[in-house]
Here is the input.
Amino acid sequence: MAVVSGPPPYRDATVVEPQPGQHVGFFTDSSICIGCKACEVACKEWNHVPIDGLNFLGSSYDNTGELGANSWRHVAFIEQNRPVAADGSGGMRWLMNSDVCKHCAHAACLEVCPTGALMRTEFGTVVVQPDVCNGCGYCVSACPFGVIERREGDGRAFKCTLCYDRLKGHMQPACAQACPTQSIQFGPIDDLRVRARRRLADLHQQGMAEARLYGVDESDNEVGGLNAFFLLLDEPEVYGLPTHPVTTTRDLPQMWRTAAVAAGMLALGVLAAFGRRR
Amino acid sequence: MPSLGTSFGRGGATNFQQDLANSDCIVIMGSNMAECHPVGFQWVMEAKLRGATVIHIDPRFTRTSANASRHVPIRAGSDIAFLGGIVNYICQNDNLFREYVVAYTNAATIISDDFKDTEDLDGLFSGWDAKRHSYDPSSWQYKGMDLHASAGDTEELEPRAGNDRFGGHGGLLTRAIPPDRDPTLQHPRCVYQLLKRHYARYTPELVETTCGVPKDVFLSVARALVENSGRERTSAFCYAVGWTQHSVGVQYIRTAAIIQLLLGNMGRPGGGIMALRGHASIQGSTDVPTLYDLLPGYITMPHAYHHTSLDAFIERESGSTGGWGRMKAYMVSLLKAWWGEKAGPDNEFGFQYLPRITGDHSAYQSALKMLDGSLKGYFLFGQNPAVGSANSKLHRFALANLDWLVVRDLVEIESAAFWSNGPEIRSSELKTDDIKTEIFLMPAAAHTEKDGSFTNTQRLLQWHHKAVEPRRDARSDLWFTYHLGRIIRAKLAGSSDAKDRPVLDLTWEYPVVGDTQDPDAEAVLKEMNGVDASGNPLTTFAELKDDGSTACGVWIYCGSYAHGENQTARRKPGTEQTSVAPEWGWAWPANRRMLYNRASADPSGKPWSERKRYVWWDDRLRKWTGNDVPDFTADKAPGYVPPDGATGDAALPGDAPFIMQADGRGWLFTPMGLKDGPLPTHYEPDESPVRNPLYSQQSNPARQVLKHRLNPRNENGDGHARYPFVMTTYRLTEHHTAGGMSRFTGVLSELQPEMFCEVSPELARERGLVNGGWATISSSRASIEARVLVTDRMTPVRVQGKIVHQVGLPYHWGFQGLSKGDAANDLYGLVLDPNVHIQDDKAATCDIRPGRRPR
Here is the structure.
């Protein structure tokens, strides 16, 4: 067990060596993100993720744009110029948040995968096995967050693995280790949830009423809880996150039942029609 | 570093970044700390979390502003008006920490009756010599004390004020205790009253019309500083090249030094002035150094005319009192380190072997000498002037006029490729066939591929070990320098020519290791640390002798290899030691993490307050003790009074914490050491859209303007139509300086893939600029193109009743690498600060138009 150095509020937070059978994930505290993008660089270097093209987007300091096959961490930059209130609040604000795959408890990508390339690991995370993936792309349309994508020129789907190889080696993921402010925290999900709620309470006490958690409670989404959740300072949409994510496969059983009923009805109808002829 | 040097005695940052966590208020100005020093910024965040107020004053709203309690937009180039306003606020409201100021600064000292202020002479101090374009500082002296030695020289080739001594520090007084002091601070000629009068016109109203900072915003900053200073609380300043890179940059920092002395924030936890350096070992490069006018440890480089003998050198450059009183021991030990047995009392320890300077040989002067053909060969070690130096176009022309050029870098940077690929080749201003420069591009090993040390921003030496072997022909700078010297010596062997003796007599035997025959870096550290006559490593610079019995390569690094162990390689975790972490690496001097820490105790040796206790006098043990190594003679009692005729440290009383100053005090007023005046004064940048509101003297009179046809200047003054906007340069987190380490790397290049400029929506409307489109930015030097980022983070400021727009320009780009673009430095001229010869590229004027530049 190593002790993390760095600033509060997480000075005493410890990095637990990941153990199989224990569900681990990320808590990203955007209130202390400084937008350095060390997470993006560390991720690409460790996982050999290819360059995504040199494109100037004219979107604040964000030239990554979105998560995809070649961007497994994405720091969003949101500039807000709000009117200054009588108490001095408001004014210029520059929000930053490092987005990542949520490793959903009810992962639609995994459910639709016909080859079994997408799997749930012993750490509770969701990983694509590139040697099994056939590039069908079902997972791409299934993801409610737009995380997973097929790689151009390769065809297979890629996304954050939560550094599966590092977890197996009892190390924390590269992005969390590179983060200089502990905005990205790695650990057992239950511990991170406690930490996130405590941090929210502290911020509310400091008068930051706009602070909120995203994906910590299972009740605020229909993906069964996220293994990567966030502390945000504005509505999720501002950061490009869906307010109320839904597992896209949620209605599939009902749809199949409906389809079965419809098919049955049709069959009956056909039978009746042919029967009459006879 | 002469600003901190003349104010406090040493040119280094006065505190350490971890200590910022103890601050109650942190003002970050002239720095974008979160982006450029993200790791150190964590302690600012920690302070904020503990309840500190963090204020970022900057023309742009940056990632630092985003994390500060408050961002204050300011017009680039107006910082002295702002800071002078704070000095005035402190004086007018009697907010100074009086007990500290009277005891620990030169506030009470009476200044010569001949001194005249800029308020008397409309922007000039007494002693200005218009013909020689320099000051004679004799009227700035303490009353009753003569200027030491240098007066009356007829062969002087440099300006007379502040001859770059010791990197400019207050070492040269003839007596430690000035004859004339007024501890009540009432005497009209005492420093405090002169200071108060000098800044009396720097009112909140003047700040508003000069800096574009509304009066109430300015007052909230002044109040935050005052309320968070005193016995119980401390405030800190952080700055970087946003302060230094101005034609009056040294004086920007001086103004902060004055504020910190008046508020009693020096030498105390959570206080100080954090000088943030731009590279991993920039502090090391001034300590050891790479500067033309200094020897290791801030010893003056001998001058051809003034320093004809070792004795004359010591007589002229060594103070008799304070820490520099022992300069002969440092100098002789340095000569012994370099010439070993060949250095003895009979040959002045080899003093005549040292090269001499005859004037300004700084980088920009060198470029002009390349252009006129008098400088024929050049080494570039990890430097890229074709992108990174102001007026980079002039530098490309200069490099193209050399006979030979050696470039040591990781990749083929612009300074090695200008002859084939530069913009002047494409524009036909230069032709490859006409360029005679022979270029040797030598691949360099990265820091991960060699052993060595970094000296970081807080004087901390940290050792790094080789992780992998350098690839192919790449080699360390140490390898290159050592073997070049070895080969030159082999070629000269047997020579009887006297001019070859300094090279042949050098101590040049270093053990080599590995297949690449790399010199052992620890052997070099050991030489810097120094040894006694039997070859045993020294433990402290106090052991250095002036009789030739000790050898020491860098006297301030003495102790870094104490007991034969590499102290810089210590990595004891923070959890296993105190928060000062004295066993992590090694800091100069003598592993003191906070300089001048004697000032954390009151004159009687007790902490000013429990909350801010740090170092104190233990009366039972009769010595100084506390959380850090005391920056004071360990057993010198607080009540010590120096006997008549005492010299060196013994001449300083027990309540004088600034031990490198000849009078042991922090200098609010600098009687010597600076070329542009004893008190900071607001001058407009060389290129400014407005007139100086205070004086008819528009800009720093002592600034250096380099005259060359490739270095024209934009017309100056009131609302000039051609170049109406202010432009300022800066760095991004995603890139490193001139781009050699980042623009050639895919994962970094894609994060900031193109040269861009930042403009406000108001300026975009005025000029028809479109976000994501192209703009051409022009000055009288060049036109460059950049993608446009329209952002609310840029704020137009109201100055002297009119709106001033500012254009932000990251300076990383050049024509080589994966991510290419025009160099912002093409736009800037060579107008320099007179003390350190640094360019003014934080505030000049420009125009901006939509569309790409003409081809």
User: Anything to note?
Assistant: Chain A has one domain: 2-247. Chain A touches chain B at residues 3, 5-9, 32, 34-38, 40-41, 44-45, 51-58, 60-61, 63-64, 79, 81, 91-96, 180-181 (CB under 8 Å).
